[in-house]
Amino acid sequence: MDLGNIIKNIRKQKGQTQGEFALSCGITQTYLSQIESNLKEPNLSTLKSISENLNVPLPILFFLSMTEDDVQPNKRKAFQIVSPSVKSLVNEFFAV
């Protein structure tokens, strides 16, 4: 799962600096940097705040951050086939 990178990419697409975004989420810039670098896993409350400030529902953030390693081995082929189309659709719908 690459949640930090997804958060970082969406934040940048929305034109917010780490400092601005961290402030709007009620966390420090250092903590946000650690989240975006996948060094820290935020608690659910922080994730909810992040998703609200990105205007992207939390389940969508989770889906976008999924990698093949997150999928059962017997379902990876289907994930490889379906994932790009679904992620593209989600990106369009949420303007991510």
UniProtKB/TrEMBL annotation:
Ranges for domain HTH cro/C1-type come to: 7-61
The UniProt entry's GO CC annotations, sorted and at most eight, read: cytosol
Which controlled-vocabulary keywords does the entry list?
Answer: DNA-binding
One example of the protein's molecular function in GO is: DNA-binding transcription factor activity
Q: Which Gene3D superfamilies match?
A: lambda repressor-like DNA-binding domains (1.10.260.40)
| InterPro entries attached to this UniProt entry | Cro/C1-type_HTH, Lambda_DNA-bd_dom_sf, TransReg_Diox_bact_type
The entry's protein name is: Helix-turn-helix transcriptional regulator
